[in-house]
Amino acid sequence: MSDIYVIGHKAPDTDTVCSAIVYAGIKGYKPATAGPINEETEFALKQFGVPAPEVLENASGKTLVLVDHNEPGQRVDGAEKILAIIDHHKMNFNYPDPIFIHVEPVGSTATVIAKMFPNEVKANKAYAGLLLSAILSDTVIFKSPTTTEEDKKIAQELAQVAGISDITKFGVDLKKAKASIKGKPVADVVHVDFKDYDFKGKKVGIGQTEVVDIEEVYERKDEFVNYLNELKNSKGYDMVIFMATDIIKEGTELYYVGNAAIIEKAFNVKVSGPSVWLPGVMSRKKQVAPPVEKVYLEG
């Protein structure tokens, strides 16, 4: 096996892990994650009989293929030698050498990989199942505005190969695997899917968790606000945002610490406390990070 590692972003989600596994398997590379996997990803791996990849928290001296990210703040520590990037996010990447980059405006990196290697994926039930899981996860079972018709079409094809007769039911079961926050430390909930951004030289962190009952979050709102303040003060953030996204109500309770005027301008709302309900907001990538960045750029 090659000494090249395929790895996704910090705070690994299902798309970043499953995409790394499939791409590595097809290319003969080694899959890895930049941290522990979450319950949803565990559900997907168990469903299709695939072991969890090696955890690689420092990649010093290793050659990497980056999947599902490209921004420096989201990379594994020690990432220096990069061979390729496979992604579906906006580009914020500089590198001294020419490398292979494949980025498409679709709902998940898994969709990109399924398009790149249709024959290999169709011949492997586990690959198809993992990529299907990743698409359903990242598009929130096609409810996210990031969803494209390509995502839906490819998901249907993957479901046939993977033996999944009811995509919606499988997607709901997948989401339920990590949907409850009861008994979980607040820090774990905030960081289960957390990304750092550089907005005009300012460090901004945006975390997201998906729930099926937003009341679980409301019951612990003081804990979340206190932790976000602690995180902001200890890690040099200009702002920290936590999205508690209810996949049933299809909206997000957005908690923040930082300048309230930025939130008001970004989302055209009035805030009177540490959070605001944003109906229809499901996607950090398309509905939260871009408007917040725009305010910073205009400021």
Automatic annotation (TrEMBL):
Entry cofactors: Mn(2+)
Keywords: Hydrolase, Manganese, Metal-binding
Presence of the UniProt keyword Hydrolase in the record: yes
The keyword Flavoprotein is assigned to this record: no
E.C. designation(s): 3.6.1.1
Gene3D superfamilies, alphabetized: DHHA2 domain, inorganic pyrophosphatase (n-terminal core)
PANTHER family: BNIP - RELATED, MANGANESE-DEPENDENT INORGANIC PYROPHOSPHATASE-RELATED
NCBIfam families listed in its UniProt record: PRK05427.1
Protein name as annotated: inorganic diphosphatase
Naturally occurring in which organism (per UniProt): Thermodesulfovibrio aggregans
Lineage: Bacteria, Pseudomonadati, Nitrospirota, Thermodesulfovibrionia, Thermodesulfovibrionales
